[in-house]
Amino acid sequence: MAPKILADEKKKSSSKKKNDAAKENNNKIWSEARKEIIPLSVGAIALVASSSVNQAVPRLMGVLMDPSKSSTSSASNTTCSNNTTERQFVIQILWLSLAGGTATISSFSPAAIGVILKDDVDTVANTVTNTLANLLRSSSSVIFGTYNMLCINPQLVGLSVVVAPVVGTLAFMTRKYLKKIVTKQQQAAIQSASFVEERLNHIAMVKTSNRELDEVEKYSQIQDDCVELGQKASLASGLSMGIMFGLSSTAFCGILLAGRRAVQAQKMTTGQLTSFGTYSFMLALGTAGIVKALGEYGKGMQCAARLYNLIHADAKDENQQIHSEKEEIKEDDRRPVDTDLVHKISVENVTFSYKADPSNVILKDLSFNLSRGEVVALVGANGSGKSTIASLLAGMYRPQSGEISLYPNSTADDTPQPLSYARDVNRRDQVNLVQVVPQAPALFNMTILDNIRYSRSDASEEDVITAMKSANCTFVSTLDDGLDYLVGRNGIRLSGGQRQRIGLARAFLADPVFLVLDEPTSAMDVEGETALKDTMKACRSSNRGLLVITHKAKTLEYCDRILVLHDGKLVQEGTMEDLQKDKDGEFVALMSDLE
Length: 595
Ligand SMILES: Nc1ncnc2c1ncn2[C@@H]1O[C@H](COP(=O)(O)OP(=O)(O)OP(=O)(O)O)[C@@H](O)[C@H]1O
Fold this sequence. Notes:
Blueprint: H1 3-34, H2 37-65, H3 75-106, H4 118-128, H5 130-152, H6 154-201, H7 203-208, H8 212-264, H9 270-312, H10 320-325, E1 342-353, E2 361-371, E3 375-380, H11 386-393, E4 401-408, E5 419-420, H12 427-433, E6 434-437, H13 448-452, H14 461-470, H15 496-510, E7 514-518, H16 526-541, E8 545-549, H17 553-556, E9 561-566, E10 569-574, H18 576-581, H19 586-593
Parallel strand pairs: 3-8, 3-9, 6-7, 7-8
Antiparallel strand pairs: 1-2, 1-4, 4-5, 9-10
The structure holds adenosine-5'-triphosphate.
Adenosine-5'-triphosphate binds at residues 318, 354, 356-357, 362, 380, 382-388.
């Protein structure tokens, strides 16, 4: 098949998909609106009534200003008749105002479309209430106005028909420009929401990298851009309204001028001209109202699409406890720690449960330690609490009881007091003390360079390249943009193993005293496992403590010590050789399952 035909078919199918989605959203909105069918119908009828009632006012004014119609031969009769007309006018106006007011009040109908995202819900709710009401009101203004104008002076209507397309075209062009700016503004708002969503999803990463302030600053910048666009949009909106008002007023004056000539030529009365002028003004307002209501309807559709997507998205509550434990975003005032002096991190009688399920105690009176230059493995069945330990070491949670302590080097004549990791160490030092690389590292929709730099924003490109070498990130050189390669949301444009390597490089860049790797090679190939062995060696030689959570037997061969976890308790600890000797022990049972 020719490429052009293929492209056409692709275009057709994509536009069909778009139409189907729009139809689906349309149906959803109207099915929601159907739930309010009675108040909406009453409102719609009342609106038409209110509008028709309002339409009678100019006609009555015309009658009032045009006494000749009701004049009789005698002067006294004329005065009497004039008085009667005025009285009738006042009574009729009173009735009309009362009827119009009542109809307008009853046209108010609250819609029951849930309360999820205030702005979007408001816009969608407005689509089936206010926007629809405005459309009805404006349409009836146009229909009744045109009809009455035709009754009064069809020639003058002809002139309006000539002027209307010119005004309409100019109005359409200004609205189109306005729509373009508003679309940009909406895109900026979506970008801002997606930035927040991504940061909240990876709140643990943001927190443990001590990057809250940076993120707040970035968010403020995005917000500033949104405000700037908002200002442009409101300026454009003001201009558009001004231009439309100017054009319609000019057209209105032109029609009045032509009408005046018709009065002078005795083709119509002053009263008829007054009525005609008022109707043409209403007609202009009605036309503008229709254009506006149709624009709002389109906007309502866009909001509905977002809203329905959100309603069907899965709720994410995994970070609940992190949020609730989140401290205020400010530089905390705990004294800095000389991380170079820290020699050992020690988990002491720690008991922990997640707030989401407090009855499920995950870690039970757990104690172990990790010294600098040591490579320790943590093994255990699925759900035994290994990743929870990593989260506690990263400072994401605090134990309910027990302590995580840091032991400085002791000198010959001084034994320094241990520091509480949670109470005594400030966030910046925590980043330098412990870095955790989770199974699926959090990656942001940024370049590889920025993702790696996330753990140390002031790192030079050379430092990043060194960290990448340690994490064996050779794949980066094969990418077109290299370090500038955009990884996509959650690193979607990278493979699982590549994401793990980026996470590893990020941890190395922070140059922590202790490194925790949570199943570092779960998604890596054989080359990745070799890189892990190199990492282990490097940790020993650089006097870094390494805790590796693993299910791989091969990895254990290179560890100094192995901790065996069972249901949140430490049940065995020792070298691989020692543990293998205990044939009834948990380790031997686990080994039979390990790869
Ligand atoms: N955010 C959380 N809220 C509530 N419970 C959680 C949360 N995270 C983990 N758990 C529970 O804690 C227990 C231990 O989970 P953890 O991830 O620490 O186990 P694991 O040993 O790392 O498992 P695996 O080997 O499968 O990775 C599990 O029962 C899990 O359901």
